[in-house]
Amino acid sequence: MVNHTIASSIVLSGFSDIPSLQLPLFLVFLLVYLMTLTGNLLIVLLICTDFHLQTPMYFFLGTLACLDMGYSSVTIPRMLFDFHTQQRLISIQACITQIYFFLFFALSEISLLAVMSYDRYVAICRPLHYTQIMHWKACVLLVLGVLMISVVYSLVHVLLLLKLTFCSLTPLQTFFCDLHQLLLVSCSDTFINVLLIIVCGIFLAGGIFALTFCPYIIILNTIMKMKSKAMRSKAFSTCSSHLTVVFIFYGTALFSYFHPNVKDHSAVDKVASVFYTVLTPLVNPLIYSLRNEIIKKSLKIFVCRLTTLGSKL
Fold first, then answer.
1. CA 14 to CA 25: how far, in whole Å?
2. Fewer CB within 10 Å: C terminus or N terminus of the chain?
3. What pLDDT is attached to residue 259?
4. What is the mean pLDDT of residues 66-79?
5. HSE (CB half, 13 Å, CA atoms) of 192?
6. What is the distance of C-alpha 143 from the center of its chain?
7. Does the domain spanning 9-312 belong to CATH 1.20.1070.10?
8. 196: which residues sit within 8 A by CB, 6+ positions away?
9. Distance CA 165, CA 183 (A)
10. At what angle do helices 56-85 and 136-162 cross, to 10 degrees?
11. pTM of the model
């Protein structure tokens, strides 16, 4: 029988080991985090204050903005702390907690993207029935369903993690507590954990992936049958922002997790992780605001109101 020393904390390898880069990276990621919170909070404020944006499409967009703020807050503050202290030591409990919230926000986001695909399908392919299908009660129930599934999924993983013991001093080759990386440093039998990841990856993630992209097959077919060029252009514009966000998130996540050698977490993999954990929440509000005339118009009105209020004060 092999004796193991049970570890109460583990080490994160971090984004970079070069001491001279710690301060510049701290400032860069701090700026990114502040911009992420500002951009997504502004989207939420615009949707709450402008009645033109109080529709199912923008309700889902506002929910996505809230999830983006939570999603970025799971990883970036810890990364900033490690840049500042350069210790990169995290307790097992804190690591598992970070994994819970990371899984919750990640699954919530991809599930919401699937719901937004369905919303675009109804709006373009069944416009006459849109208000009957996508009424407010249905929208709220869809979002609550997404959140409940994410809570249960994350909780199951965490409960299984709590039964494991960790005894390896090998650093996690990442800048945040990643589920796959944490299992690699466990001295317990992780068969059930790995099996759950595989089963959920095939059925849950595969189902969400299909629900996200399959509606666009019907949407594109419907758009191509439209006789008016203006109608086709409008339909494409309402889908382009959502598709851009979907491709960025799925592209970088798939590259990182389905690397030919997942154990070899190279610098390229860390950069890919930065894209889907840090940059995606930042670019989401930019993509939707720059590609949406209604949001741009609402933003101008909002800025004018602030300017007028500031001049009066």
1. 11
2. N
3. 55
4. 94
5. 11
6. 15
7. yes
8. 156, 157, 160
9. 10
10. 30
11. 0.90
Collapse the DSSP code of 166 into the 3-class scheme (helix H, G, I; strand E, B; otherwise coil) and give the result.
strand
User: CB of 60 within 8 A of CB of 145?
Assistant: no
H-only helix segments in the chain: 22-49, 56-85, 92-125, 130-133, 136-162, 179-184, 191-200, 206-225, 229-257, 267-274, 280-290, 293-312
Q: Enumerate the domain spans of the chain.
A: 9-312
CB-based burial, 134-143: b 16+ in 10 Å, e otherwise: beeeebeebb
d(CA 172, CA 175) in angstroms, rounded, equals 8
Other beta carbons within 10 Å of 238: 17
CA dist., res. 44 & res. 106, Å (int) = 19
Determine the residue type at 13. Answer: S
pLDDT, tens only, 35-64: 999 999 999 999 998 888 889 999 999 999
Q: Which amino acid is at 292?
A: N
Residues, the chain? 313
CA distances from 119 to 90, 227, 281 (A): 41, 22, 21
Question: How is residue 43 written in tokens?
Answer: 């989207």
Contacts of 312 (CB under 8 A, 6+ apart): none
Core vs surface per residue 11-36: b (16+ CB within 10 A) or e: bbbbbeeeeeebeebbeebbebbeeb
Q: Is the dihedral of CA 161, 146, 246, 102 positive or negative?
A: negative
What integer best gives the mean pLDDT of the chain? 85
- Residue among 306, 221, 298 at smallest CA distance from 51: 298
Token code pair at residue 297:
């118009």
How many beta carbons lie within 10 A of that of residue 264, not counting itself? 10
What's the average model confidence in pLDDT over 27-40? Answer: 94
